[in-house]
Protein 1
Amino acid sequence: MRAAQISRPGGPFELVERDIPQPAAGQVRIKVQACGICHSDLLVKEGHWPGLQYPRVPGHEIVGVVDAVGAGVTQWTPGQRVGVGWHGGHCGYCDACRSGDFFGCTVALQITGISFDGGYADYMVAPAIAVALVPEDLSAVEAAPLMCAGITTYNALRNSAARPGDLVAVLGLGGLGHLGVQYAMKMGFKTVAVARGTDKEPLAKQLGAWRYIDSQKQDPAAELQKLGGAKVILATVTAGDAMSAVQGGLGLNGTLVVIGAAQSMQISPLVLITGRRSVKGWYSGTAIDSQDTLAFSALSGVRSMNEVFPLEKVAEAYERMESGKARFRVVLTTGQ
Ligand SMILES: [Zn+2]
Ligand SMILES: [Zn+2]
């Protein structure tokens, strides 16, 4: 089989031939059909993850078909279409796991494409616990970006305090934001898209946004206050100054939910105190959250806009993602 590996921090993608891996006990082998390229894959490419073992095959937006299962796997059978996302497994018995906070596992937290080889390959092996079912009416290319960009925005919104009819702003209209706007609308929120430039307005409307705020021309905080103040602002950008500029648009008890990994941001204690407002982060979710994301997307028509490249063009595809010019997610396909 082919695999696109990185063999040292900062090294290039190497397309190599490897033996098809065998699933051990508790594992599932997946014949990969599509794998999204996420910005976080640079953790592998550039060596920003402490203790990462090389060579490593990146990729945590995987969709394919179960091809073989290891001993003891009862919930998956060959032929099922499945996906694997960022959360690659947990112990199930540490205090965090016993509290249901599997992402905080302190014993055996596994991250796909970091702790074990990911989806930039014809086949991959994953713990059965990390696998999500893919609905029939989503193609592999449609489903792949939902395994990270999709689940992150969907899960952050559904776990927020916003309820149908509430004002929800989505800051940024990129890979995460273009999904966030769609999910927010389909969840029944009065959805405001906030981005830079008038040229993004038609896109915001196409995605279903109720209003668009051009943060270059208007003060996004003041505009959100005119609309009553946001219950939730989902910050998908990686620019801390853009997050700082929008916090004043929160209504009473509003929350700024941060999912974009900005270096730093400024928060005004006065804004927090006077409106009992808060700032919180959100991480993607586990396999069942992925499965819920896929099912909701199939039901509601939420789709990622993708640029598709064959696996052998992995270097070009990665560069496209890194350029920030992709509209909006980049997906690799194996042809299987
Ligand atoms: Zn990701
Ligand atoms: Zn644990």
Note: The longest strand covers residues 27-37.
Protein 2
Amino acid sequence: MINYADRLQRLPPYIFADLEKLQDDLVKKGVDIISLGIGDPDFPPPRIITESLKNSLTEPGSSNYSTSAGEDYFRNAVAEWYKRRFNVIVDPTSEVCALIGSKEGLANVGRVLLNPGDKALLPDPGYPVYAQGSTILSDATPVIFNLTDDAFQPDLSKVQVDDRTKLLFLNYPSNPTGATIAKDKLESTVEFCRKHNLVLCYDNAYSEICFGSYQSPSVLQINGATECAVEFNSCSKIFNMTGYRIGFAVGNKKIIAGLKKVKTQIDSGSPKFVQRAATTALNEYFDFDLSTERKMNNKILKERLDSLVQGLREIGIETKSPNATFYLWANVGDGATFVRELLKLGVVATPGRAFGLNGAKHVRFSVTQSTTRINEALQRMRRLDLR
Ligand SMILES: Cc1ncc(COP(=O)(O)O)c(C=O)c1O
């Protein structure tokens, strides 16, 4: 008889299970599926990155273990990128840690900071790893704060804190809402965390998927942030390197040291050839060709978002095109039913409930398919009976 640990049983049911089963059945029947579900860019990584990967594969030592904290050259590149991109100076040795994707770091930071029975504050709707991979799997309790106003901003005056509350997760540009945050709101969040002795885990995974004149800030630009904050980012969305699994945590020395300590017991780091490719990516970020390619990709994403907004409006679903991310968050009344109906037409979207109770009425579309496929999805959606 196999018994799972209590913490595994406390994980909520896997909300995608039904959906995956339905999707599999349709694929088996030969249905042409258009996936606007997962947030995985359809653009390839820029060529300079794949070339760097190929070259580093044959470098002596590239097949050996790395370290869980990451190679010096990678941490130096992260520190240099923070300096040029955000004007933030960090020490690559004590204030930067490599991650096997930022999801890994977001999950492991719970092990660093939460005792059984402690509480972590997290946004609803929000990326599920904060509540589940990080908090529940650390035997702690997720406590949500609502992002239900029009701009999906936190109202910290309504957040209850007690002496078991240790962490606050925040994510802008936001998955799933696409909302962004203004610097003064970040300032008040840092102040709140310092006042209540909370660690601020700031998830900036979409910092470079921004449109028009909007530039996503780093929490580390805020005065006093290094006393309480750690920021997570990754090469996944910046450079379309999702499958490479390379990210980074930057910030407070004690949190970074704790993260390194946890990771030494769990992993041996991203492969060195991946860290080399990521180093090239970060070093070349400001290079003319690479930045032109990134801007072009962002322009395409924004056009797709705008045309999806327009197409949804034509079938009676009102939503706003976001200033950042490749997600469109739409109130459809009952997200789960809508997604099920959509699936019958061969279109996959994510039910908002996957991001918390506040998402129950919503659906999240990810515009990570070609414009032609998105238009095809819209054509199919016109067949939906929305009465
Ligand atoms: C908000 C947010 N944070 C973090 C991640 C994790 O990304 P990765 O582990 O690829 O860096 C994702 C992935 O979709 C995300 O949406």
Note: The longest strand covers residues 165-171.
Protein 3
Amino acid sequence: MDERAAVPVTLPRVNPTISYWQDPPDSEVADYLSSEQVPETADTIIIGSGITGSLVAWNILQSADHGSIIMLEARQACSGATGRNGGHTKAASYRSFHDNAYSLGTETAVKIARLEYDNIKAVHAFAREHNIDCDLYSGDTVDIVYDQQQWDNGVKSIEAMRKAMPELLNTVAKYTSWSKEEAREKFYVKGEECVGAISYEAGSLSAYKFVIGVLKMALKKGLELFTNTPATKVDKGEDGIWCVQTSRGVVRAKRVVLATNGYTAPLCEKFQGKIVPLRGQITAHRPGKTQPIGGLPTTYSFIYKNGYEYMIPRPQGSKYEGDIIMGGGLVMAKEEGLEEFGTTDDTTINEDISKYLTETTPRYFGSNWGKDHEDGRIRKQWTGIMGYSPDGFPFVGAVPREKNLWMAASFQGHGMVLCFMCARALVAMMSGDDEKLNSWFPEAFKVTEARLEKKFMGRLHTKPVDVEIRL
Ligand SMILES: Cc1cc2nc3c(=O)[nH]c(=O)nc-3n(C[C@H](O)[C@H](O)[C@H](O)COP(=O)(O)OP(=O)(O)OC[C@H]3O[C@@H](n4cnc5c(N)ncnc54)[C@H](O)[C@@H]3O)c2cc1C
């Protein structure tokens, strides 16, 4: 993994694979340019137009004295991880709670679980409040578990959550367990035999459409957007003003926000090996012939010994309703996916992962999948670049020893349940209003020198259940 973490991170590549969500791209915003050249100065420069950058812009724009805001995007609008993800707003907090409580204490583990839950609720509420048409589904999800150890870990972690947050038994800590027989009937998993299933509140949306909606609202409030405009260098002048070089000229500003996720290192060297790109892959399956009429009842994950897949049936009424979005399969690639770390190449797919993901639907659903659609099982497949940190948490706040350089990046495969609240927290910090954050924002997410010392070891694995935590 050391070698992979040391691969020099590049800027976003040209000609990425085309994701399901960006086909076609939004005709108004995808290639938006506020002007041919960037202005000479701005109050704030945001680099990156994914869910983080767009919501940082939106939050800044809520204050009366927001000043001028420029957003730079290397490719089309929202064409990083957000425009290429699964769109699962699924926290699965019980899968990390035990580990978080073990390494950071129960209080922080509760804060993280609450933030994830609140983030889901906030994204769904925001989409509804602003009428953003993004194929939103708010409802249950299920984890179909195929490995006894994973099942035991889950059960014990849920018990720990219930003890630690008795006042949240109907929200954050609400889980329902199902036997393997119940799982077969209720969730149609008539293929490979599972240990059991766990269901809870979650949702899904087109993150691309959501962000395009946010960007349109931000543009109306004065955001200046420059797509297809990579920021190539970020330097501080002697006067303390930041100078950002772009393909459309140089812009200077009092403050800069890096919302660059897996691509942060080329602009801020101290993140080389600390935010490591990881390529994720997704296949969109046309529904099998015996899939239940009216669609599947929830979104899914399939959890096995050393990995997982996540699956989102496209909701009724959406384009290609009933299609199955299936992502994951990392550990099925050569050396458990080692070569997917450190790469920013989302212009190609990994053939091993492609083959594996293609076979998942009939394997999990068995007779409830049936014959393939006459146009073939796979409608589309694509890749996208995530940003992974050594401790598995995002970096949110001021970049150490750099005045007025801010960041919110490294959201692993989990940004749909983190970025909304992290953007809110970052803007509070930038406004000097961060005292109120202590009650809900985990210190563990802030950017510290100590976190930058940590060594990147890959995706973190959950600790066995016999590792005791103090409640
Ligand atoms: C295949 C895949 C599936 C996923 N599925 C899920 C899921 O189902 N649920 C979930 O919670 N999370 C999922 N994730 C993770 C989630 O998508 C991310 O955590 C989240 O989108 C991060 O958002 P962001 O805005 O911080 O980063 P991004 O969306 O990556 O945005 C960063 C932007 O910065 C731009 N940029 C970078 N460098 C520069 C530069 N120098 N100049 C100009 N622009 C620049 C990039 O082009 C990009 O548009 C998935 C990710 C992938 C790749």
Note: DSSP finds eleven helices and 16 strands in the chain.
Protein 4
Amino acid sequence: MRTERVDTNYDFDFIVIGSGFGGSVSAYRLAEKGYKVAVMEMGRRWTPESLPRTNWELSRWIWRPNVALRGFFNIRIFRHVLILHGCAVGGGSITYANTLLVPKSTVFENGSWAGLADWNAEMPQHFATASRMLGVRENQILGPADLLLKQAADAAGIGHTFYRTNVAVFQAPQGEPGGGTFPDPYFGGEGPERSACIGCGGCMVGCRFNAKNTLDKNYLYLAEKRGVRVFEETRVVDVAPRNGTPDGSQGYEIHTVNSTALFGAQRQRFTCRGVVVAASALGTLDLLFRLKQKGSLPRISGQLGNRVRTNAESLIGVRVPGSSEDLSKGIAIGSGIYIDDETHIEAVRYPEGSDAMALMSTLLTNGRPGWTRILLWLWNLAVALTRHPIRTLRCLRPRRWARESLILLCMQTVPGHVDMRLQRPWYWPFDKTLVTRGNRVSTFIPRANEFASKAAALVGGTPMSMLTEVLFDIPGTAHILGGCPMGATPADGVVDHRGRIFGYKNLYVCDGSVLAANLGVNPSLTICAITERAMNFLPEASKNDWNDSPEETRTE
Ligand SMILES: Cc1cc2nc3c(=O)[nH]c(=O)nc-3n(C[C@H](O)[C@H](O)[C@H](O)COP(=O)(O)OP(=O)(O)OC[C@H]3O[C@@H](n4cnc5c(N)ncnc54)[C@H](O)[C@@H]3O)c2cc1C
Ligand code: SF4
């Protein structure tokens, strides 16, 4: 095999697009192997001082830079699904709820990744590495919301399934209170000092107490120590093979713009030998569709955008107006239960004062989606307001929402997906944007709704659900996955089992878009583990022949 020396005319050996779970793992592992790496991240860098105190500080919470909102949390609504996702140096880790669970091994037996590798033999070591790097430990701080979940599970006869979540949070040694500062507990002194969690429930609004193990405290921190350059507020808009080579064998040219400039976004150009696209399911689909359509990367498989999954999720909850317990205390997701083999529920909370999400919640309403459900919701609302006007208004007001609410995050391993395309929608003829297609994803899980109703009755609360689920039959998810399916050939996937894009050399996708099944658990640990595996195959920088392209593995 021909071995080329790394061409020093390239700005970088690898450019990684996105600094979330897939991007940070890639950057660190590439730097460890001796590559010169840059990370392009369109979000901002956050510190405990710059994070918002509550999510009413919209300009520091929400990401909509074209209207001067430069936070780290984004909400996008599509015809089939409402998607919550992160955008920052550290990707979704800045806003996520730290819960890192290993999915059941059966998830690898379905979907387009089935049979592409011996997953159950290979993945445990990568899950173990990712868990160690992220500092995963069982939650030691059960808050009132967790105890309420346990009480409701006991009453429903499923108390034995209650468990404390595994979380990426630095917690005080046994018997010591939270808040103390400790020298790097994870990386033998190479990492930053940490403070022990105080159980304020604020993880999803950003940890201001240096306790949450966000990526900028582990993978990305260590990557930067090894010389990786992170270009923040820098959005990649073009990736094209250099020198007219159709397959990228002579590297790539990357064009970026400043993502937070209101006017005159500054354009920059970089060159590199290899690229890792790690812009999250939505970011990667948006970018790759644009690159395919404008002819920069025309060989990308027509499978792009197929089989996007929502983790079969539904967000419901219980509100207890006037609750004597402060349900906002604890770790954002502190515990979980299984109501059946395929349905998993976690106890979630926002910190005191972070009541903005109340604007998206309403009284839980069962029934078939459509007009009948809307009428039933209006009827429920009218009955509740007539019978218990004060109580109902207290349930619907934003004030004290976080103190009084137990959010129930329901996830299922059931199959189901939508497809995404980049199109000009009828309501926005100016620019193309991602749209969803296909069959509707179920907006309610009857057994989960039943559980929420019983839990509410137990504590004198009211069952709640998301307004978009009731009114528009649109489920909400923070776990959007898939769209760049793994496959044996370009006819059935965009990437192979190592994340290599069919049709190109040294071009990878490593993020949630390559996951091929509803995991039924929070996905970030799986994204890290899959990326650890993909990077593990890459040779040391000095041994790279820069000829890495996917194998077509189907033999029949
Ligand atoms: C409120 C909330 C709570 C969550 N809680 C949990 C949890 O407890 N456990 C769990 O496992 N998961 C949780 N998640 C989901 C988790 O955050 C995501 O699954 C995960 O972050 C996805 O990782 P990723 O590598 O695919 O992309 P991300 O982590 O989303 O990173 C992608 C990055 O790419 C950047 N980017 C996109 N396009 C471009 C571009 N063109 N140029 C430059 N940069 C770009 C984005 O700004 C982003 O920072 C939660 C999500 C939310 C929103
Ligand atoms: S509960 Fe509070 S202190 Fe603990 S990790 Fe979350 S935000 Fe940080």
Note: Residues 169, 197-203, 207, 209, 211-212, 331-332 surround iron/sulfur cluster (ligand 2) (CB under 6 Å).
